[in-house]
Design a protein that fits this description.
alpha+beta; Phosphorylase Kinase, domain 1; 2 domains; 13% strand; binds 2-acetamido-2-deoxy-1-O-phosphono-alpha-D-glucopyranose
Length: 371
């Protein structure tokens, strides 16, 4: 997005109700640019979420939107069958005036719009057990729901997204190229990652050997990707569907723990504040296991603790790789941002390594409680 977009004109390109009032940018997310649009209607203000799709990251936006259309249409139908409210429990795409699920500008930029769901909150970080439990349960239910999605395999919107050995290879390539001249100052982090190379292939090997199933997964299960209903305090709607595609349930559980059980946000630079909180971990595990009991296979269950460490390692590699490449992928707000995030994630993995036995003990206790 080189110039400031004409948000009023873009809004009118979709099948909206009311008269455009204003649009404000939200700062959530490392990838897309997102705006909340306010429309004036005789019934009052009506809001929409307007998003510019980052096509540097999502190279085939039409396939991306085809996935989202299929997933939301199926979720809508299932929620209705179960007596729920599909307008609140799944995202609703607002089609373009031409009937497509997106709008393309004359310059070839892709935009999309969702109806805004009122009366919800989302949390980047919290120690509230109720919220942790319900957010985790929502992601578990989401996997369970999509297990029944009919039709062909979903498109891989970002190929090899959680294929950790490829992330490792990209990291080594970035070290070798040293595009931004940052290898020397990150020698310690590079060495730390290299020592963990052997772990990177464990889950993809299990998948390739058919020992754990490929499922439809969310692949970006951060806490704030579940909207919590203000009225009930329960998980209402899973959002950010860009990376819903074939994958392993383990990466979803792992990423949930990476962010949800952390005592500090990804951007925290005071590393003594960064670590895994066992109580938060327990509430997440409770919620996720309550939703997936009888659905996860024993081998998936056996790798839940490892999955959290692995995806956190993957994320450390991704941030460091982007730093070494000169910050071409994630949005950054200062030159050392990606390095700060990488160090934060390294601290997180170190703490998970220290707490491995304690995390396993939590899961055993929860399983025993259910016989
Ligand atoms: C990106 O944009 P956002 O915050 O939803 C990234 C995730 C990372 C996350 C780290 C498509 O997600 O994989 O875990 O940043 N999404 C993509 O905060 O790369
Ligand atoms: Mg995301």
């Amino acid at each position: 997005m080189a110039t400031e977009p004409d948000l009023s004109a873009l809004t009118q390109a979709f099948q909206v109700t009311g008269r455009f009032d204003r649009a404000t940018r939200t700062d959530s997310g490392h990838i897309h640019n997102t705006f909340v649009v306010m429309m004036i209607t005789p019934q009052g203000i009506l809001r929409y979420t307007l998003q510019h799709i980052n096509t540097r990251v999502f190279k085939d936006p039409e396939k991306l939107m085809e996935n989202i259309e299929r997933v939301t249409a199926f979720a809508r139908q299932q929620i209705r069958q179960e007596g729920g409210n599909p307008d609140r429990q799944t995202l609703t795409l607002v089609p373009g005036r031409d009937g497509h699920a997106y709008h393309v500008t004359p310059e070839g930029e892709y935009w999309r719009m969702y109806a805004f769901i009122d009366g919800t909150s989302s949390y980047e970080i919290t120690d509230n057990p109720h919220i942790l439990y319900h957010a985790a349960r929502s992601f578990g239910n989401f996997q369970r729901l999509l297990d029944r999605l009919p039709g062909p395999r979903l498109h891989e919107t970002i190929p090899y997204f959680h294929y950790t050995p490829r992330r490792y290879a990209a990291f080594e390539a970035a070290v070798a190229a040293d595009q931004a001249g940052r290898v020397e100052e990150t020698a310690a982090e590079i060495e730390w990652i290299r020592q963990r190379r052997d772990e990177t292939s464990i889950i993809v090997d299990l998948l390739a050997q058919g020992r754990i199933p490929e499922r439809i997964t969310h692949n970006d299960t951060k806490l704030n990707n579940v909207l919590i209903d203000d009225a009930t305090g329960e998980g209402l709607c899973v959002i950010d569907l860009d990376t819903v595609m074939p994958g392993s349930s383990l990466y979803d559980f792992g990423d949930l723990v990476r962010m949800g059980a952390a005592t500090a946000i990804e951007d925290e630079t005071a590393l003594e504040k960064v670590g895994l909180d066992l109580t938060r971990f327990e509430w997440l595990a409770r919620g996720y296991l309550d939703a997936t009991r009888g659905f996860l296979t024993p081998l998936e269950q056996a790798h839940l603790v490892f999955s959290a460490r692995l995806i956190t390692l993957e994320q450390a590699m991704r941030f460091l790789t982007d730093y070494l490449n000169g910050d071409t992928y994630y949005k950054v707000s200062h030159p050392r941002h990606n390095l700060d995030r990488a160090r934060n994630q390294i601290k997180m993995v170190t703490d998970m390594e220290d707490k491995q036995a304690a995390m396993e003990a939590v899961l055993s206790r929860l399983e025993r409680a259910h016989g």
